[in-house]
Amino acid sequence: MIKAALIKVALYVPVVFSLVVLGAHFMRYGDTIFVAGALVLIALLFVRQPWVARLMQVVLILGALEWLHTLYGLVQMRAALGEPYGRMLIILGSVAAVTACSALVFQSKALKSVYGLEQTLHAD
């Protein structure tokens, strides 16, 4: 019982981490609406509805695309200035990958059960 609960908690870690880092990214650029949105999304994780899981997946994929967009712009700028960008490429690429992979945790058996996704899959 405790092991199953710990597994569920562990599955939320990359999701919450990704949303917090996205919120920090938006805060850096002064987008307070998106910062508030990231906080609301974290709170929405407590709503055990199938639409929440799907919303999270969409947001996390869009977040990964935002990281790739930011990465592209920063690499272009640094390359034009003749500055090194390899380390930044690795770091932001990793952040984008973690954010995208965070969407996959909602496909796990544990979170499908939490959000009631089993019922929505087979409506025979």
How would you state the average pLDDT, rounded?
93
The low-pLDDT segments are none
- What's the tally of helices? 6
Strand content: under 5%
What structural class do the secondary elements suggest?
mainly alpha
For the record, the count of structural domains works out to 1
Major β-sheet annotation: none
Give the ordered list of helices and strands: HHHHHH
- Anisotropy-based shape: elongated
Helix content: over 70%
Number of strand segments: 0
Short description:
The protein is mainly α and 124 residues long. The protein contains six helices and no strands. The chain has one domain.
Describe the structure.
The chain has 124 residues and is mainly alpha-helical. Helix 1 packs across helix 3 and helix 3 (50-80) runs antiparallel to helix 4 (86-102). It has one domain (2-113). 80% of the residues lie in helices and 0% in strands. The mean pLDDT is 93. The longest helix has 31 residues, at 50-80.
